[in-house]
Structures are given as C-alpha cells and as structure tokens.
Amino acid sequence: MYNYFATTSKGLEGVLADEIAALGGKRIAAGTGGVSFSGNRELSLRANLWLRTANRVLLQLSEFSAPTPEALYEGAKAVPWPDLFTVRSKIAVEATVRDSAITHSHFAAQKTKDAVVDRFRDAVRARPDVDTSAPDVRIHLRIVRDACTLSLDTSGESLNRRGYRADPADASLRETVAAGIVLLSGWDGQVPLSDPACGAGTIPIEAALFASRFAPGLLRASFGFQKHADYRPKLWSSLLDEARGAVRRSGTGRIEGCDISAEAIGGAGRNAQRAGVSDIVSFKRRDIREFSPGEPSGVIICNPPYGIRIPGEEGGIEEFYRAMGEAFKKRCRGWTAYVLSGSPTATRHIGLKASRRFPLMNGPIDCRLLKYEMY
Ligand SMILES: C[S@@+](CC[C@H](N)C(=O)[O-])C[C@H]1O[C@@H](n2cnc3c(N)ncnc32)[C@H](O)[C@@H]1O
Predict the structure, then answer these.
(1) What is the pTM of this model?
(2) Per the CATH hierarchy, to which homologous superfamily does domain 175-214+254-373 belong?
C-alpha cells in the first residue's frame, strides 16, 4: 500500500473523493485542495488515466519534521532517490511553505535539490541535472508548521492539460474544473445538456467525455510515472486497452454548446474533434437572448463572462445575466441550470432564486456554482 494525494481546485474535493472511491482507493480523506488516499501502484496509474477532477497525483515518499534547513537536508537525503529514478533524469523540485521556521519556498526547494543530488553522488558518483521548465521527474515538497511531506509527482504535466484544447477562448475554464462542475451537477449523461456561453466548448466536451465513459488520460501522450524506476509499460498498456474498451458511443443525451462568438464556436468544434467526441456534441452560434434548449427537460451548465468584458460581447455584464434569466424563465421550463458565477452583483440580475450554492475556486476567482430549478 502507498499513500497518495491528488490535488484539485478548492470546492471539488468531494467529487474527487467520489471518483477515487469508484477506482477502489482506500483510506480516502478529502482535505483542502486535494484528497489523500492509499492503494497499490496500479491504482496510481488508474488515477492518472481516469480521474476527471484531479490536477496531479502525488506519491508520498516521506514525512518528517524540519524546524531547520539542516533537518530538511537530512530528511530529504534519507529518501533512496537512486531507487526511484535514474541519474539521467532531469529533475525539478517544487516547494510550498506555510507557517514554518523555513519561510522561503525557493530556499526549501534548493536545499531539497542539494540533498537529492548528494544522495545520487554518494551512490553512483554522478548527479541528475535540474530542468525546471521541462523536467522528467517532479519532486514536491510541502512544509506546514515545520512538518515536511516529500512526494513524487506521478502525473508530470498537470492533468487538466488533456491535449484537446489547441483552440482556447477568452477566459476558458480548466478542463478539470469544467469536469468538476458536470459532476457536481449530478448530470447522469442521459438527459440533454446545454451550455449557452460555451467559449472553447470545455464544459460540453468534458460532459461528452464523461457520458461516453471516455477516460481523459487516453487523450494524453505522457505521464510523470513513465520516468519512474518502477514503471511497467505492459501494465500501462493493458490499462489503456481496458479504457479504450470501456468507451460507449451511444445512449448519451444530446450535448450542445452555444456562444455569440463565431470564432469561439469554430474553435469549440475543432477542440471536440481533437477530443474524439465531435459525433456526440454539437455547437452553434447563438446570442443568449435567443437561447432556447428545445427539449422539455435537461441540464444547463453555464460559465458566463465575469466582471471583465469579453470582446464581441454586446452590452454589459448585467445585460448578459438579465437576458440569461429571461431565457431561463421563458424558454427553459422543466430544466435545471447551474451557473458558475464570480460576480454576486451581476448574478442578482438573473432574477431567479438559487436553490443551492456550491463554493468553487476557478483559478484565483472565488466563485459560486448556483443551482436554479425552472418549474
Ligand atoms: C467565461 S467565457 C466561457 C468560457 C468557456 N466555459 C470555456 O471553457 O472556454 C464566456 C463566454 O460567453 C460568451 N458570450 C458573451 N456574451 C454572450 C451572449 N450575449 N450570448 C452568448 N454568449 C455570450 C463569450 O463569447 C465567452 O465565450
């Protein structure tokens, strides 16, 4: 059994914990900005392949107290690094420090890097190089109240980079946040889903990946664990085969994205193609003032413009919210809407009462996902 910590955006810890439970994780505990769990090595590969809301899956290596730089160095040097990856790997240490005697994260990262390098020198008389821009191996250090946790990043590049969004739009959501909103909404993949301001199409595309049981990791070329000493390519290839076999192309509800911007709609279509879901998602250019989802019931998920004006948007933010409220009241009876709002002032202009509010961080923006039921 190994201990892992999967990171996510604040507000998505609960849905991430459910995802980990579905994969068979043990001792699952949701914290702030992530979920700890335990399981075997295969579970970490499955987690990288299947988790929709995790940004990284970290393998915890060591926990120790480091009230001084020397204690940090000794604690980091005690880890058998040469057993974990080869000396030819380019490494990077990322550190976060909070409420501790060691106050500078950059200094803590340097000290840890020195310990890793020295441990290699002692063992093989050679040292790994450092490359902070494109490392093969990422080491994470977290110090909270002098308690250190050292981890190895099994994901590599953040898992939100699925690889399909070569056409981003203004203010695009992280793929993991878009997937998280779909999961928070409880959408079952079978009733229709519509996003009236879809931008690059992230929400409809993540919805389509979920509904078709498409493992998001199938879209990625590489992962951090592939550079680790215990990587088993045959096991990984069998997990990929299993995931490919799990994809189902039929039985999903109609998934649609609309946006006022023709450019955004073009990009969303190309993104869906790259994600391999263009057969189950459709996009059309439409002003929110004409939004009408058509069918008698379904789920609307929307990430409207924030306080910042988006090019191509006519009128102000309030006008957008007012028009959305009008469309919901007049043409969306029987539907349930989830609106990700970063602006409480603008949200009032919807003119409907939210039946639930989920706090959610969208990057640095403190948002609420608001639920509206249109009877
Ligand atoms: C925050 S962005 C959505 C980003 C999207 N979730 C993504 O991940 O790419 C808001 C979108 O609202 C669109 N928008 C602005 N005014 C609109 C209107 N009147 N009707 C429909 N869409 C509009 C913008 O073009 C922009 O793409």
Answers:
(1) 0.95
(2) Vaccinia Virus protein VP39 (3.40.50.150)
What is the tens place of the pLDDT at every residue in 219-270? 999 999 999 999 999 999 999 999 999 999 888 999 999 999 999 999 999 9
What distance in Å separates the CA atoms of residue 169 and residue 310, rounded to the nearest whole number? 10
CB distance 197 to ligand 1 below 6 Å: yes
The CA 303 to ligand 1 mean position distance, Å, reads 7
Residues whose CB falls within 8 Å of the CB of residue 327, separated by 6 or more in sequence, listed in order: 196, 288, 289, 290, 291, 292
Rounded to the nearest whole angstrom, what is the distance from the C-alpha of residue 140 to the centroid of ligand 1? 36
> Which fold would CATH assign to domain 2-153?
VC0802-like (3.30.2130)
The residue whose CA is least distant from atom 5 of ligand 1 is: 199
pLDDT for 16 beyond 70: yes
